[in-house]
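Sequence in, structure out.
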Amino acid sequence: MPYVEVTRVVKADPAAVYEALSDMESFPRFMENVNEVKVLRREGNTTESSWHVTLQGAPFRWVETDTFLPQEGRITYRQISGDLKKFEGEWRIVPVEGGASVTLTTDFEFGMPMIASLFNPVAKLILRRNAEAMLTALQDDLQSS
């Protein structure tokens, strides 16, 4: 199963970074490949959200459960239905001098063993580029606020 992890220091207050990442419905405003995010349900520190993204021209849709752990600087997500067999990971925000170290992890599986060996390396590269673009967009959005 492919796993992607990308870390970048964002020059912004860690609390502001966490707040921005917690507002997933605003992602389409500054993240080019995220078409739509809708929070379907909120309960305590969890949400259920639907996502529609386009990666390399291919549309992907899923519903995920998000768990917000602000004391730990973490937001976890796990697909509960959608286009992939498995899609889960987390955001980690750690205060550092001059800002916040932000890590996005993604663990995914297509669920089609015969083509996984062909697509996994490409998908891993696409997800890495996407994660890097998301972190750049996050920093740009926070610095323009």
